[in-house]
Amino acid sequence: MHRDNPVRMWALIEETVLARPVGSPTTMREQLEHLDQYTVHRGTVTVQVIPAAAGPHPLLLGGPADVLRYTQCALDDRLVVRGLHAEAATLTDDLDAVRTYQAAMDITATIASPPTTRITAP
Fold first, then answer.
1. Gap between the Cα atoms of 44 and 7, Å rounded
2. Which residues pair with 87 in a beta bridge?
């Protein structure tokens, strides 16, 4: 990887997911503290939390998905939609599908907290 063009990640995470207890209270606290680092020291990772009070949002019914964007002009963007089983993931470069998810992500990002909003334990 070239240092002038690092991989970037933008994550939209539902507040309810962050509040769901998985592991010990110590583990939960450490995980939230780790995520919070990205709200303070923003670099190549952006984290936004979708508040529970926001209600339904465009990504809610789609399930977990990733949009892979490439800087090389010869490579089209890709959409990865994941299911319950690893082999259930779908990868597509269908432009309509990719644009639909990108639009849903953009809309959802506007209702999510700004990327600089601190992530704290519930």
1. 7
2. none
- pLDDT-based confidence at residue 74 (cuts at 50, 70, 90): confident
Predicted TM-score (pTM) of the model is 0.82
The closest of 52, 27, 69 to 112, measured between CA atoms, is 52
Tokens of 33: 């503290």
| Spatial CA neighbour of 35 closest among 46, 21, 26 | 46
Classify 105 as helix, strand or coil. helix
Report the run of H or E that residue 73 belongs to, with start and end. Answer: none
Do 65 and 77 meet the contact criterion of CB atoms below 8 Å apart? Answer: no
Cα dist from 52 to 4, 31, 56, 87, whole Å: 37, 19, 9, 30
**Can you say whether the dihedral through the CA atoms of 79, 3, 117, 20 is positive or negative?**
positive
